[in-house]
Amino acid sequence: MPIGVFVLAAAVFAQGTSEFMMSGLLARTAADFGISLGTVGLLTSVYAVGMVLGAPTMAATAGRWPLRRSATTFLALFCVAHVVGALTTDFAVLVATRAVAAVANAGFLAIVLAALPRLVGPALVGRASSIIVSGVTVACIAGVPAGTVLGQLWGWRSAFWAVAVVSAVVLVPVASMVPRDGAGAGAPDRSMRSEWTVLGVRAVRSAVLVGVLVNAATFAAFTYLGTIAAGIAGTPGIWVPLVLALFGLGSFAGVTLTGRYSDRHGRSIIAVGTAGLVGVWALAAISAHTMAGFAAMTLLTGAAAFGVGSALIATIVRTAAPAAPRLAGALATTALNIGAVLGPVAAGVAVDRAHTPVAALWCAAGTAAVAAAIVLFDRVRRGPEAVAVGALAR
Residue 343: is its pLDDT beyond 80? Predict the structure, then answer.
């Protein structure tokens, strides 16, 4: 595996830390600016929207740049956004920096994922995707808790400075060790409009839709894991961060294991995995009355959810790349982030109606069931999709 893939994963670690760390910094940020928690929550919403809109926009803007140029540009922009955010005393400016950082993050991921078939070859896309995604899982295990601790000790700005420093440090190897080629360089000369027609291919369209649903299920449940743990009778407060850490450890294990096999068995992993997600989310809901059972299921659900998600990223990129070399990474990035936006919304409705946070786990199971049904339907009706994709690529 080229060392550039691991360098890019380190950059994704910094970006994943930034994306999720605000959950532990909202209270101090609100107090610093003298605003309500609801208002400071805009920082999370704006980032999510920026990720959804930024991936296709940046893929269209920078899709023809060499990989090294696009990766360094987006990472530098991400770093500068955090420096400005750490320095500002105007909340509106802080919101703007979160939007800029999200767009840079989305652009970085879209370009990097689209580059993988050229960077490592089609046969290793699954393994390379798992390495890139592992940057996010390590962020959940180490980066986000570290950012929260920094915020508690020295204020929320220290967490922003830490992300900026890590990004700046990683920028040096990205600029020197990542190959120039791999993204738009050498891609067929086609318009972005023609690349969008790849969504007319059922295999691509189904993979994108399943990616939305699987990540919606993941974030529907993840949003309420801490609340569920805190509500279990007799649970010490230390278990709340431990449960979140277990989910992160499980996600890292799932991504790592899936990466070894998804290049050869990607379809089977997705088929079995989506069906399995229905069961593990349901078992997590059933076991949510005891900390031992819930902790064990949290580890398992993290592994299953991120393992299937990693395989879906590789499938979207591999299937779409022949016809949409610039858009393939954006499709994967956008699909997962749409799910990350919709999942908590659906879970919130379920929790409010059931008056218990455990309803979020049942919501995840139901969403995964829809994904599993689509995968099953697609396997039954599978046609000569490779021919269709090849025809679009010509």
Answer: yes
